[in-house]
Amino acid sequence: MDNSVLPAIDIDRLQVSYGSQQVLHGVSLSVAPGEFIAILGSSGCGKTTLLRTVAGFQKASGGAIRLFGRDVVDVPPEKRGMAMMFQSYALWPHMTVLGNVGYGLRLRGVSKDEIRSRVAAILKMLNLSGLEDRKVTNLSGGQRQRVALGRALAIEPEILLLDEPLSNLDAKVRIQLRSEIKALQARLGFTAIHVTHDREEAMTMADRIVVMDAGRIAQMGSPKEVYDQPSSPFVASFMGAENTIELDIRATGQEREIWTRDGRSVPFSGPVPTGAVTAYFRDDVASLDAPDARIEGSIVLPGRITQRTYPGGHYRYVVAIDDRHFTVTDDRYHDVDRPVGLRLPVASLHLFPSDYAKGGIHA
Amino acid sequence: MARPSFFGLLLIAPALAMIGVLFLYPLGFSLSSAVTGPGGELSFAAFQKAYELYSTDILFTLFIVIVSTLLTALCSIAIAGILTLSETPWLVAILRSLYRWPLFIPFIVAAQCMRTFLAKNGLMNNSLVALGLMEPIQATSFLDWRGIIITFVWKQVPFVTLMLAGAMASIDRATIEAGRNLGASRLRVLIELVLPQVAQTLLVGLVLSFVTMLSVLSVPMMVAGSQPTMLTVDMAFRINSYGDYATANALGVISYVIAGTVAWIYLRHNVKREAQI
């Protein structure tokens, strides 16, 4: 069979249950060879279960998993031929770096000398040269996870599974390893599935993001697509649009307008049906203006600044409008307790019919 | 603490006194009486006599205890390995509920059960004959060294398994999964990845089992015939039949030395490990 045509991983209506509790409700996902997929979701959404089922540590109760066309649902994990990285590093504490990285090669009957030279090449690639005979318990967290990456890559896998491998590392090492993994993936061309709850990590590493919610895929697409055009209130708030405001879309003759609850309106043209809507927006699309400003294409809501913080680069404000609070980032300095206008560009709002929103917010 | 306080000493005094009266004094007494001649002088006559009469039994005891310890290790590793790595839930459930029972059965009861189980016309042979696996004429009694080993292993496996399965359950599960993920069969995972991580616990369990088996009187006395037999039986015999405390004490000292050697191996290994970490 020609590997270039078949998907590297083809997950077809996969169902998984823990006892009577169903965790995955028919997940379908196709991953092309060489693609880097990030599965994003809050804890308990089934993302780790999905990865573990692909690896073979969790039994599927229905559906199929095909690796380059080969159905592996009933194949034990050791015969699936993929490599995995774990959150806890999962290095073997009784072995040296050489023992850990070379173990997969040893299992494949590679001679001792060749293992040594191949491990040396991998350690060089990971900037760990000369650490062959070090005990893994004497390494730092970042070095350990690099050894785990080396151990996974030593067998030259076609598929690499990453189970939140970076979440135990401190911020600086995490960002460094992120780009190292991404660079290695581009160079070696393996297919990767990366499970994470870190949005930024998923956005920066993946070619395609899969957002999961309660055992189902909520949305998949390129990072930009998922970020800019969330398909549901859940995805919108998970991607950071955590401010919500109730609006109305009314039709007057041919024209449609979007109305705030206190009676301001702006012309609106969009695919959202007429009726009550909930708008989701990120704090960086909103900005601060004069309370009575009128700006083309934007809603301006009068409010008052109740809090100001400086996280670096810009200010972050909390604006109170009636009894609601919104977070907004703005470059300019404003005094606390000052009346302001919260400016919302209509084109940047994620609008969903209000009855949709009621069942859908988890984050 | 810079200086032990008087009050602290007072607190541990009862415990110290118990150790002194119940352990150190009898130990010292038996040691000294083993090297004391009939006239009160220093003498190794008791050791010489013990060696002349019981050198075969010393070797027999070593053989029984070492073989039993090794078999116990094998069985415990197998059971704990299945408990940890098996993917067949009913097998794990059955094994988990069954394997601990022998822990609650005293050695003397176990020995009694084995007498009826392992005899020439015992339950084991009868079952094998009934199953057609053996001709009645082939039936032999296992009530000899094999019986002792079977009883010891049956009695000690649950103890070591309990410790070992606990240790295996507490290692990072991901280290097992990482091995299987790279292509290691479950047997290789057990031997190459799991066992080295719990070796310390296995060693402790085996040392404790070794010393326990060395000191059991009822099993060799009830299960096997009189010759050759284990040192515990010889000691009891010297005392009960002859009132020969000197030789019995000499045999006791030999037992201490055997147990002490094993404890020393364990301690040395332990110190080496700690020095590494």
What is the element layout, followed by pairings?
The complex is a heterodimer of chains A (363) and B (277).
Chain A: E1 9-18, E2 21-31, E3 36-40, H1 47-55, E4 62-67, E5 70-71, E6 83-85, H2 97-107, H3 112-125, H4 141-154, E7 159-163, H5 171-188, E8 191-196, H6 199-205, E9 208-213, E10 216-221, H7 223-228, H8 233-238, E11 243-252, E12 255-260, E13 265-267, E14 275-281, E15 287-289, E16 298-309, E17 315-321, E18 324-330, E19 339-345, E20 350-353, H9 354-360
Parallel strand pairs in A: 3-8, 3-9, 6-7, 7-8
Antiparallel strand pairs in A: 1-2, 1-4, 4-5, 9-10, 11-12, 11-14, 12-13, 14-20, 15-19, 16-17, 16-19, 17-18
Chain B: H1 6-34, H2 45-85, H3 89-98, H4 107-118, H5 123-130, H6 145-170, H7 173-182, H8 186-214, H9 218-223, H10 231-242, H11 245-276
Helix pairs in contact in B: 1-11, 2-6, 2-8, 2-11, 4-6, 6-8, 7-8, 8-11, 10-11
Quick synopsis:
Chain A has 363 residues and is α+β, with helices and mostly antiparallel strands. Chain A folds into two domains: 226 residues, P-loop containing nucleotide triphosphate hydrolases (Rossmann fold, 3-Layer(aba) Sandwich), CATH 3.40.50; 121 residues, Nucleic acid-binding proteins (OB fold (Dihydrolipoamide Acetyltransferase, E2P), Beta Barrel), CATH 2.40.50.140. Chain A is built from nine helices and 20 strands.
Characterization of this structure:
The complex is a heterodimer of chains A (363) and B (277). Chain A is of the alpha+beta class and 363 residues long. Chain A folds into two domains: 226 residues, P-loop containing nucleotide triphosphate hydrolases (Rossmann fold, 3-Layer(aba) Sandwich), CATH 3.40.50.300; 121 residues, OB fold (Dihydrolipoamide Acetyltransferase, E2P). Chain A has nine helices and 20 strands. In chain A, a hairpin with a 4-residue loop joins strand 12 and strand 13. Chain B is an all-alpha fold and 277 residues long. Chain B has a single domain, classed as MetI-like (MetI-like fold, Orthogonal Bundle). Chain B is 78% helix and 0% strand. Chain B is built from eleven helices and no strands. In chain B, helix 4 packs across helix 6, helix 6 packs across helix 8 and helix 7 packs across helix 8. The longest helix of chain B is centred in the N-terminal third of the chain and has 41 residues. Chain B is globular, with a radius of gyration of 23 Å. At the A-B interface, helix 2 and helix 4 of A face helix 7 and helix 8 of B.
